[in-house]
Design brief:
Length: 165
């Protein structure tokens, strides 16, 4: 919607100079429309740089890990210079093993703990208020994934098996 406001203000600014005679009304209207153009551009730039109009909402989900082929095990495969890992696991309520891979928005961690579980923390953008929703409606940013952290916690009794590529 902010693009519509910007477009209409630009067209109005142009038409005020082309169709109106020089007068005080034209000067005021042109100043108001120019200010609207500047504020729209500033709003777009602030949204692009700092996600203006949006807030980050976190959702966490924890599930129990299950065994893979009746073995308490988590598979791990290194990517690159052993700085990032792909993990293969199975939750207690699933029949088939799952894979979690690191990416630009997803980080993976493996830690030792008391319970075998997987915790997924997802951060997404949400409109800050109704005004932001009005301005940035149609931008496709509402619900956009910002980051996801997947933490696998396994007890000392579990094996961590290195998988081959």
């Amino acid at each position: 919607m902010i693009l519509v406001i910007l477009s209409l203000a630009g067209i109005g600014f142009f038409l005020s100079f082309v169709l109106m005679q020089p007068s005080r009304t034209r000067a005021i209207l042109s100043a108001v429309l120019a200010l609207l153009i500047i504020l729209s551009i500033a709003g777009i730039a602030a949204n692009d740089l700092h996600h203006y109009g949006f807030r980050e909402a976190q959702i966490s989900e924890t599930k129990r890990l299950g065994t893979i082929q009746n073995q308490p095990v988590v598979g791990r495969m290194a990517i690159g210079q052993n700085e990032a890992f792909v993990y293969r696991y199975q939750t207690a309520d699933q029949d088939k093993p799952q894979v979690v891979k690191p990416s630009l928005t997803t980080t993976t961690k493996l830690v030792r703990g008391n319970q075998a579980q997987i915790k997924t923390t997802t951060t997404r953008l949400q409109y800050r208020n109704n005004w932001s929703e009005f301005l940035f409606w149609g931008s496709g940013q509402d619900g956009q994934l910002v980051s996801r952290t997947v933490t696998l916690t396994v007890p000392d009794s579990w094996k961590i098996v290195d998988m081959k590529k």
